[in-house]
Design brief:
- The structure is a single chain.
- By secondary structure, the chain is α/β, with parallel strands linked by helices.
- The protein has a single domain (2-321), classed as Metal-dependent hydrolases (TIM Barrel, Alpha-Beta Barrel), CATH 3.20.20.
- 49% of the residues lie in helices and 14% in strands.
- Strands 1-2-3-4-5-6-7-8 form an 8-stranded parallel β-sheet.
- The longest helix has 17 residues, at 73-89.
- The chain binds adenine and zinc ion (ZN).
- Zinc ion is lined by residues 16, 18, 164, 192, 215, 273.
């Protein structure tokens, strides 16, 4: 209907997308063949059938296995170019893309290969695209420090630092020192918090890591004081509705709390997280959410506006996209 057209045509910014999560099964198989990598699945259909997740970890296991086909700079380029093409089709004008270097350096891929491939695709796209290097929180802070050191020669190619992977049991404060270092270096800071983890993780992400945005953050509503603070301080949440349902954060989309977040005055945004695994890119996330929840035209416009206001862009450049 009309809403679908409005969603399609609205200029949007995507602030929560893991580039490794944009790797479609067809591309996984093509790259596996190109690189002579053996997969645990016999066909695209068999792989897709394995995408039945019960929680975050059940997804991460398959997501890291899928990324094992990425070896050459061209592989990282092709993956990123494919995502940017989909983003362009969804009228995404600006995107801030996470990449997980440790997933690749642990397999012996040089960090230069990873960064150069992803960055070159960003430069070749008409969509404005910047990069956020994310540390894997199931690994040690020492490992994060080593990754930062390896990545610093290429620091002009990414503008932010993030924190992702298995949340529960790996609180933000585990990375206090490395985030302090990244802050000193002048990077923008974000962290996944309050996806599966408790509201306390959102608080330590803000107070200890000093992040500027919270990725997911949907569990904040369990703490009224925190909810008020997020609204008052205009700390944006990068919410990923299809992801939340696929990973059983909410049983059904009808139970998603996006409207409550907006009603609480929080700067919430809609994003795709890992679109190849969760059943859709940017507009699919909007459409699924708007079909299930009592949201209207004004909410759609507010979410689009929020996405630019929360973006790490100079004010003048944001204007250009609206
Ligand atoms: N890595 C990729 N997607 C993620 C998510 N939704 N949460 C934590 N780590 C991730
Ligand atoms: Zn994520």
């Amino acid at each position: 209907e009309q809403l679908r057209t409005v969603v399609q045509q609205m200029p949007k910014a995507e602030l929560h997308i893991h580039i490794e999560g944009s790797l479609e099964p067809e591309l996984i198989f093509a790259l596996a063949q190109r690189n002579q990598v053996k997969l645990a699945y016999g066909s695209v259909e068999e792989l897709r059938a394995a995408y039945a997740f019960t929680d975050l970890q059940s997804f991460l296991d398959i997501y890291y296995a899928g990324a094992s086909v990425l070896l050459q700079e061209q592989d990282f380029y092709d993956m990123t170019a494919a995502y940017l093409k989909r983003a362009e089709q969804d009228n995404v004008r600006h995107t801030e893309i996470f990449f997980d270097p440790q997933t690749h350096t642990a397999r012996g891929v040089p960090i230069k290969t990873v960064i150069d491939g992803i960055h070159r695709a960003c430069q070749d796209s008409p969509v404005s695209a910047t990069l956020i290097l994310s540390f894997l929180r199931h690994l040690s802070e020492e490992d994060a420090f080593a990754t930062l050191e390896e990545a610093l020669p290429y620091r002009d190619k990414y503008m932010g630092i993030g924190l992702d992977s298995s949340e529960v049991g790996n609180p933000p404060e585990k990375f206090a020192r490395v985030f302090a270092k990244c802050r000193e270096l002048g990077f923008h800071l974000v962290a996944h918090a309050g996806e599966e983890g408790p509201p306390a993780y959102i608080e330590t992400a803000l107070d200890v890591l000093k992040v500027e945005r919270i990725d997911h953050g949907v569990r904040c509503l369990e703490d009224a004081a925190l909810t008020g603070r997020l609204a008052r301080e205009r700390i944006a949440l990068t919410v990923c509705p299809l992801s939340n349902v696929k990973l059983c954060v909410f049983e059904r989309m009808e139970q998603h709390n996006l409207l409550q977040l907006l009603d609480a005055g929080i700067v919430a945004t809609v994003n795709s997280d890992d679109p190849a695994y969760f059943g859709g890119y940017m507009n699919a996330n909007f459409v699924a959410t708007f079909e299930a929840l009592p949201l209207g035209l004004s909410h759609a416009q507010r979410l689009a506006r929020n996405s630019f206001s929360a973006a790490f862009l100079p004010a003048q450049q944001k204007q250009k996209f609206l």
